[in-house]
Specification:
- With 224 residues, this protein is an alpha+beta fold.
- It has two domains: 94 residues, no CATH class; 124 residues, no CATH class.
- 26% of the residues lie in helices and 26% in strands.
- The protein contains five helices and twelve strands.
- Strands 3, 4, 7, 8, 9 and 10 form a six-stranded antiparallel beta sheet that branches. Strands 1-2 form a two-stranded antiparallel ribbon.
- A hairpin with a 2-residue loop joins β1 and β2.
- Bound molecules: zinc ion.
- Zinc ion binds next to loops.
Length: 224
């Protein structure tokens, strides 16, 4: 059973608990797909986890923490209080969420801005460094379509990514490869691949391109 973790909290993912999700018949028809994504994501993005929600938004528990609802301990339960008081049939979306390290070093203007925000303690997103290379940890969520894997998953940024880069969040934009609602335009035509492959081959270059554009440059290429 795959373990997910966030901060100090670790839980075993209960894939069977996802069977109650509405609008996702593929979970019953092809249970091997979610098992495959769980294994692969655990290896490639070990700090990412699965949550449930509605539309494109993760659900929040009614407890004081308003935490995510995730499949564990035999049900869809809050990660803080383990409560499952909300009736499960309300959830129709299955969402991967986590922080993606996006390289900032090389985009000099953006790096200067973020280093200044670090000094002034106004930076709203976490960073990490490898040697002298600075990475911004960008919150992203990836939502399975109801017809997975026949349609592309949907990837979303939050506003904080763009405000940290010092640019307004783009609306629908050909330059940024963005649709409205901070929704990434990742495919002209969907080619079937796993969620980890979408992350590596599409979302990571997409996020890096946003940094390059915010720096006033033109991305050399978007996707592999
Ligand atoms: Zn709760």
């Amino acid at each position: 059973m795959v373990q997910h973790s966030r901060g100090d909290t670790t839980w075993s993912v209960d894939a069977d608990a996802l069977q109650v999700l509405t609008n996702n018949d593929w979970l019953q028809s092809f249970p091997q797909l979610i098992e495959h994504d769980l294994e692969e994501m655990h290896t490639a993005f070990p700090r990412w986890f699965l949550a449930v929600g509605r539309g494109d938004q993760p659900a929040q528990c009614h407890c004081s923490v308003h935490d995510y609802i995730a499949p564990h301990c035999g049900g869809l339960r809050c990660l803080s209080c383990s409560g499952s008081e909300l009736s499960t049939h309300q959830y129709s979306a299955l969402i991967w969420t986590g922080l993606l390290p996006v390289q900032i070093s090389g985009a000099d203007g953006v790096e200067r801005r973020i280093r200044r925000q670090q000094r002034e303690q106004t930076l709203r997103l976490p960073t990490t460094e490898s040697g002298s290379t600075l990475y911004l940890l960008v919150p992203i969520r990836v939502v399975y379509p109801s017809s997975w894997p026949n349609e592309a998953p949907r990837g979303y940024y939050t506003r904080e990514f763009f405000t940290t880069l010092g640019v307004p969040p783009p609306g629908t934009s050909h330059t940024h490869h963005m649709l409205s609602g901070l929704h990434m335009c990742l495919f002209q035509r969907w080619q079937r691949m796993s969620i980890a492959e979408v992350m590596q081959n599409r979302i990571a270059p997409h996020a890096l391109a946003q940094v390059v554009i915010a720096n006033g440059d033109t991305p050399r290429r978007w996707f592999n």
